TrEMBL record:
Signal peptide interval: none
HAMAP family membership: GGGP_HepGP_synthase (MF_00112)
Protein task: Prenyltransferase that catalyzes the transfer of the geranylgeranyl moiety of geranylgeranyl diphosphate (GGPP) to the C3 hydroxyl of sn-glycerol-1-phosphate (G1P).
InterPro entries xrefs: GGGP/HepGP_synthase_sf, GGGP_HepGP_synthase, GGGP_synth, IGPS_HisA/HisF
BP term (GO), one: glycerophospholipid biosynthetic process
A GO cellular-component term linked to this record: cytoplasm
Species lineage: Bacteria, Pseudomonadati, Bacteroidota, Chitinophagia, Chitinophagales
Name listed for the protein in its UniProt record: Geranylgeranylglyceryl phosphate synthase
Family listed: Belongs to the GGGP/HepGP synthase family. Group II subfamily.
């Protein structure tokens, strides 16, 4: 039977269980070299593959996803930068609305255009409030979205944005400093948001080591997403996965 990704996320949150998602940018992966990455992820107990990018130039998205699906049962979740990044071969789609921006196209416009196609895809669609936070330098997402990110030290703005997203019906909140961000999101901002929402919280952008992943989980992140750092050093998959999954045990000991 097909796994319901959202129920799985909610159940894990209730059990104080943290998750680790490896982000694959279709532009950066060669379908023929996916085997070792998937093997490393299986061995490390990775929870999800997120697939997508702010700007996907390659045309092999379906191929990448089918290849992953043929190699592993780790669920594949689309994290699309545009409606062209929807593949029916994935398990679920983060239906992102850029609630930190004021660009109507990314709040609702592109959703209207892609709705019939998304519905027909049969994918599990998860409405996600996407909050981009300033990561210290312009990232692809901040440029492409043509929307100002939340200033890194304005916890209240992030908090109110997340609360509004939740009350509007978003089932997930994703806080992102952008791929390759110089500065990942601070624990104090993560804590402010996590303490005031009930839906699962995803955090990513610029996380490069297990310590930061662990601190983010302790601050309240439910899912940690890492892309760039892993592309450079695949051995980090195991280190970060162990760090993320260790947080539940620490909580239970308290
Ligand atoms: C970006 O949250 C993701 O949208 C992950 O960022 O590539 O910096 O890990 P990195």
């Amino acid at each position: 039977m097909k796994m319901n990704i959202y129920s799985d996320l909610v159940e894990k949150k209730l059990n104080l269980q943290k998750s680790f998602a490896v982000l694959l940018d279709p532009d950066a992966v060669d379908p023929s070299s996916l085997n070792s990455l998937v093997d490393l992820s299986e061995a490390a107990g990775v929870d999800y593959f997120f697939v997508g990018g702010s700007l996907v130039l390659s045309t092999h998205l379906d191929e990448v996803i089918r290849k992953i699906k043929s190699l592993t049962r780790i669920p594949v979740v689309l994290f699309p930068g545009s409606p062209s990044q929807v593949s029916r071969f994935a398990d679920a789609l983060l239906y992102l609305s850029l609630i930190s921006g004021r660009n109507p196209e990314l709040l609702i416009g592109q959703h209207v255009v892609s709705a019939p196609f998304v519905k027909k895809s049969g994918l599990e669609v998860i409405p996600t409030g996407y909050i981009v936070v300033d990561g210290g330098a312009p990232t692809t997402v901040s440029y492409i979205s043509n929307a100002a990110p939340v200033p890194a030290d304005k916890n209240d703005i992030a908090l109110c944005t997340a609360m509004a997203g939740e009350m509007l019906g978003m089932k997930l909140i994703y806080m992102d400093a952008g791929s390759g961000a110089k500065n990942p999101i601070t624990e104090s901002m993560i804590r402010s948001v996590a303490e005031n929402i009930e839906v699962p919280l995803i955090v990513g952008g610029g996380i490069t080591d297990p310590e930061k992943a662990c601190l983010n989980c302790r601050a309240g992140a439910d899912v940690i997403v890492v892309g760039n750092a892993i592309e450079k050093a695949p051995s980090l998959i195991k280190e970060i996965s162990d760090a993320v999954h260790s947080v539940k045990c620490e909580n239970l000991k308290m």
